[in-house]
TrEMBL record:
Keyword presence, Zinc: no
Function statement: F(1)F(0) ATP synthase produces ATP from ADP in the presence of a proton or sodium gradient. F-type ATPases consist of two structural domains, F(1) containing the extramembraneous catalytic core and F(0) containing the membrane proton channel, linked together by a central stalk and a peripheral stalk. During catalysis, ATP synthesis in the catalytic domain of F(1) is coupled via a rotary mechanism of the central stalk subunits to proton translocation.
A cellular component term, taken from the record's GO annotations: plasma membrane
Keywords: ATP synthesis, Cell membrane, CF(1), Hydrogen ion transport, Ion transport, Membrane, Transport
Membrane topology: Peripheral membrane protein
Official protein name in the record: ATP synthase subunit delta
Gene name of the record: atpH
Length: 272
């Protein structure tokens, strides 16, 4: 995202958070706003002329706002109309940044709703688990990444996987991401996990261990990683028996391989 667009988005996130903080129904307002923003982005993805018009610098901010109000009046909540109006009044580098900005705002709104319900940790864990399911099922990932299939078909497939197993927030976030893929499905889901953690001021540590880690072990590991990296860490774990022992930890782009399999591999390389 270009500099002008980043600045616009920062202002809008601040505006959205302020509005949600002042709302008597933060949970409901956040859920509705997030869902409607996602739906509006879907419309923009299909309607090139509209998305171009909404970021047209040749038109004044008032003209762009008037167009949005005419378009959305009576079709969305007041909160959604206000944040979209605020968005089109900003200067965006291009229509892609504008749409990606609305997606970000939709995610923030939904996550603030989940926060109001005390579900942020659960949403974060569900997204991590979903990413691991997709990662371990190559055929499923291929189908979700199939650009020859319609957006609705890909979302319907994922919806069947998720049905009755996750929160409404997790489902909405995952379905939106799969419908607008800009990377591999597993990467898109991992990025969502990172976004949820960031909202809580944390970074994600993805841990593969040869045996399950108990809550105390995860807590101790988080403490050690926080001392190493100097920031709050959210630990997410999965079992990988192929490691034989120990664990592999990934924080951002950095990997710490303390597994038995990793040690054996390094030993073989040193003897070769």
């Amino acid at each position: 995202m270009h500099a002008a667009s980043r600045e616009a988005l920062e202002r809008l996130v601040e505006t959205l958070n302020k509005g949600l903080n002042e709302s008597a129904e933060q949970v409901g307002t956040g859920a509705t706003t997030g869902t409607e923003l996602f739906e509006f982005v879907d419309v923009l993805d299909r309607e090139r002329a509209l998305r171009v018009a909404l970021v047209d610098s040749a038109k004044s901010a008032d003209q762009r706002v008037s167009l949005v109000k005419e378009l959305l009046a009576g079709k969305v909540s007041n909160s959604t109309e206000e944040i979209v109006s605020a968005a089109v009044s900003q200067n965006w580098s291009n229509s892609r940044d504008f749409r990606n900005g609305l997606v970000k705002l939709g995610r923030v709104a939904l996550l603030r709703s989940a926060e109001g319900q005390g579900q942020l940790d659960r949403v974060q864990d569900e997204l991590f688990r979903l990413a691991r399911i997709v990662e371990n099922e190559p055929q499923l990932e291929l189908l979700l990444a199939d650009r020859s299939a319609s957006v609705d078909a890909r979302r319907d497939l994922l919806a069947k996987v998720l049905y009755g197993k996750v929160t409404a927030t997790t489902e909405a976030l995952a379905l939106q991401a799969i419908g607008r893929l800009r990377q591999r499905p597993v990467e898109a889901l991992d990025s969502l996990t990172d976004e949820v953690a960031a909202l809580e001021g944390r970074e994600v540590a993805r841990v593969r261990s040869a045996a399950p880690l108990g809550e105390q072990q995860q807590s101790l590991l988080a403490d050690k990683l926080e001392k190493i990296y100097g920031r709050k860490i959210a630990v997410h774990t999965e079992v990988d028996s192929s490691l034989l022992g120990g664990a592999v930890i990934r924080v951002g782009d950095e990997v710490i391989d303390g597994s038995t399999a990793g040690k054996l591999q390094r030993l073989r390389r040193s003897l070769a």
